[in-house]
Amino acid sequence: MISHRKLDFRTLHFGGEEGKLIPALQKVQETDGYISRERILEIHRQSGVPLSQIYGVATFYAQFRFHPVGKNIVRVCHGTACHVSGAKGITEALEEELGVANGETTPDRQFTLDTVSCLGCCSLAPVIMINNDTYGNLLPKQIKKIVKGYREAAGGVVQP
Amino acid sequence: MEVKLLTRNFDRPESWTLDAYEKAGGYRAWKTAFALEPEALIQLVKDSGLRGRGGAGFPTGLKWSFVPKESSSPKYLCVNADESEPGTFKDRYLLEKDPHAVIEGILICCWAVGIHHAYIYVRGEFGLPLFRLRDAVREAYAKGYLGHDVDGHGFDLEVTVHRGGGAYICGEETGLIESLEGKKGQPRIKPPFPAVKGAFGGPTVVNNVETITTLPWIVEHGAAEYRKFGTEKSPGTKLFSVSGHVVRPGVYEIPLGLPCKELVYDLCGGISGGRTMKANIPGGSSVPVLTGAEAEAVNLDYESLAAAGTMLGSGGMIVLDDETCMVWTLAVLEKFYAHESCGQCTPCREGTGWLRDLVYRLEAGGGKSCDLETILSITRNMMGTTICVLADAAAMPAASFVQKFRGEFEAHVGAGHCPMRRRPAHFLTAAH
């Protein structure tokens, strides 16, 4: 369980202007790894922003997650360039290696597999990102070795 | 032939640090700019003919001149680093390799327009580019290039780095402003244009990273020097990010007007595996596609590409070889747009979904002969009917793919599988 650290959302201002909601949600995800119902209520109580607006904004952006995730987030790029360079094979290799489908987390909470629209490094296609590390020009047979590195590293880092 | 104006520092060791940037003559242009009156500076940028590098190609100096000189509410600059167009990855390189050039460009723009607060809206998925930019901003503050009384010139400038939440639509300028204000990134109806009423109700300039990064070079060398590159109507250089089936994909800085052939075959080393170029999407995934033959004949500048029926866009070129299934490629594209439509306007929300479903069905071999006409009719009903251009961005590739590769689409009808890749029709339901 993630211990409930206290966050002060009132301090997340941009020089006295509005526009603090997204940084607040990012802060939550950085701390907890995902956005829980309790946190949304906490932001609401402290900032006075309506609940519907917080939830609307949080669900609008692809970055925010509402379920606990694994220690390592594996993101497979499915942009155009990666698609034509074999992203499908990479996804299948990852699904086989991790034993989970897209969007799922392994039972040991080590890995979450996600496919994303475009990671914006098309010259390296096909690309995956694990946490903040990028792996490019991949072949399906390389997946095993890459994943192994993260399995062995004791205690990965939660992706902000 | 590459020309290195924007990418001049890319090969220097640790080019992203303040030390390296200053050694390479950095922050000199800012001093030159400050010696000029703001009006003269705007005129200089107008004279250089610099056009917005984010996609629309609007003249930068002209955009600045729309901002009222006197304003009761604060003016803002938003640097658009929400680079999300599939196939585009030039801004990532600029932020990673030369973040101080971006900051110097911001200083120049803010002095010209009279802005005291700039936001840099960085794409949420960016890791390294964001960290490097944050470090660079910190260094610049510490050295006195940003903050109160910049460089002892009595000019204040705050810069805030904002990390986006991961939504393609926030690359649209009013979507970006909405998102910056902490809301859903749904574009606003224009007018009022951001230059009059933008972020937090104040007049706002929204410029692409590449546009901003070009400014120091123009200020240092002058408009006439800049005009020596490129063509009469499209002066200067442009970063092209080439991906897909070429031997050496990557970011290339070329003078505008360079033949596309030269970029693909000389700089990028041609098509990989010795195959031929079947199609070329020259400016990011949302511009109309060119056939291989059309691409080989075209020059890369705003006018030539417009004459060829497509656009320069963001310069994200995707090259497709003769083994690629065009129906499948379009299916991937349309899935992206259907996912990224913000849902405000009916033609876009519904149209992108229908396009995706129809193209996926065709790809899987389950389409009908009337589907092609339906796709074209949907695209006609999407273009120009929405608040922002996302609907056009989804419709233009669909229309051009179907028109230019009609034979391939027809071959899929009733085939029961994709004739290019000989796959069974299994993922119609699994796809989305």
Task: Provide a descriptive summary of the structure in words.
The complex is a heterodimer of chains A (160) and B (432). Chain A has 160 residues and is α+β, with helices and mostly antiparallel strands. Chain A has two domains: 18-60, no CATH class; 72-153, Glutaredoxin. In chain A, 38% of the residues lie in helices and 11% in strands. Chain A has helices at residues 21-32, 37-47, 51-60, 80-84, 87-98, 143-152; strands at residues 72-77, 111-116, 128-130, 133-135. A four-stranded mixed sheet of chain A has the order 2-1-3-4, with helices on one face. The longest helix of chain A is centred in the N-terminal third of the chain and has 12 residues, at 21-32. Chain B has 432 residues and is of the alpha/beta class. Chain B folds into three domains: 18-226, 3-Layer(aba) Sandwich (Rossmann fold); 237-321, Ubiquitin-like (UB roll) (Roll); 326-429, NADH-ubiquinone oxidoreductase 51kDa subunit, iron-sulphur binding domain (de novo design (two linked rop proteins)). Chain B has 18 helices and 13 strands. Chain B has helices spanning 18-23, 28-35, 38-48, 60-65, 90-97, 99-113, 128-143, 173-180, 209-221, 223-227, 260-267, 292-297, 302-307, 326-340, 346-363, 371-382, 390-404, 406-412; strands at 76-81, 117-122, 158-163, 204-208, 237-244, 250-255, 258-259, 277-281, 290-291, 299-300, 316-321, 417-418, 423-424. In chain B, helix 2 runs parallel beside helix 6 (99-113) and helix 15 packs parallel to helix 17 (390-404). The two termini of chain B are 43 Å apart. Chains A and B meet through helix 1, helix 3 and helix 4 of A and strand 3, strand 5, strand 11 and helix 14 of B.
